[in-house]
């Protein structure tokens, strides 16, 4: 058997004008880990509730690799998390995570993402999330996508706004003993349909459908 016969998600590829989104090989995963080790935001910023990006470089790299391996091992059709590595010119520059529970019934996903610091402010974040959501809405029959961001995380909020997300309340969490407020954002299918994704292609979906609970 081939790898994609056993785990067909390795054959899933999303292409946008500048990017490719897919599962990485272990060698590519090590390159992605190096991107994380080199930094994904300015030292003065704290954009994530789980402060993995504030760890030393080696720990950041290990976090990325363990997250990728763990998501595959824990995958079930009713509870899955797809870590799509974002490639630009053949090199990993970041990742978009698409996660769902009971997707076959709820048809709803949540997303989170990061890019290496040198790749910020080039529109890659919007392009990558557009690609990931094209899979969700146009090929898996998704109904909603949600995201959360701290109010001062302008990059994440900006991506969501450009793609048509709307306010969906707040979340209150504790980090380092401090209560933090996050903005919840929601994208409906009706709002999604306003996005132009004519330049996005998705291949290798059909063998994956049972793994997504579809």
Automatic annotation (TrEMBL):
Q: Where are the transmembrane segments?
A: none
Statement: the UniProt record of this protein carries the keyword Transferase = yes
Listed GO molecular functions? transferase activity
Instruction: List each copy of the N-acetyltransferase domain by range.
Output: 18-165
Output the superkingdom of the source species.
Answer: Bacteria
Keywords, A to Z, come to: Transferase
Keyword field contains Transferase = yes
Give the InterPro entries listed for this entry.
Acyl_CoA_acyltransferase, GNAT_dom, Ribosomal_N-acetyltransferase
This chain's protein is named: Succinyl-CoA transferase
Organism field: Nocardioides luteus
């Amino acid at each position: 058997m081939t790898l994609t016969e056993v785990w067909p998600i390795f054959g899933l590829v999303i292409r946008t004008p500048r990017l490719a989104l897919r599962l990485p090989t272990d060698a590519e995963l090590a390159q992605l880990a190096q991107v994380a080790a080199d930094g994904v935001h300015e030292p003065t910023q704290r954009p994530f509730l789980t402060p993995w990006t504030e760890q030393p470089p080696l720990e950041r790299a290990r976090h990325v690799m363990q997250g990728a391996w763990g998501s595959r091992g824990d995958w079930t059709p009713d509870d899955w998390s797809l870590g799509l590595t974002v490639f630009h010119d053949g090199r990993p520059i970041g990742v978009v995570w698409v996660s769902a529970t009971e997707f076959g019934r709820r048809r709803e996903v949540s997303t989170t993402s990061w890019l290496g610091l040198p790749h910020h402010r080039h529109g890659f974040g919007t392009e990558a999330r557009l690609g990931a959501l094209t899979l969700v809405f146009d090929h898996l029959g998704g109904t909603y996508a949600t995201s959360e961001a701290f109010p001062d995380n302008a990059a994440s909020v900006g991506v969501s706004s450009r793609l048509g997300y709307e306010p969906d309340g707040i979340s209150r969490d504790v980090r380092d003993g401090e209560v933090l407020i996050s903005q919840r954002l929601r994208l409906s299918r009706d709002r999604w349909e306003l996005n132009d994704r004519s330049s996005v292609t998705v291949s290798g979906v059909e063998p994956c459908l049972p793994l997504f609970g579809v």
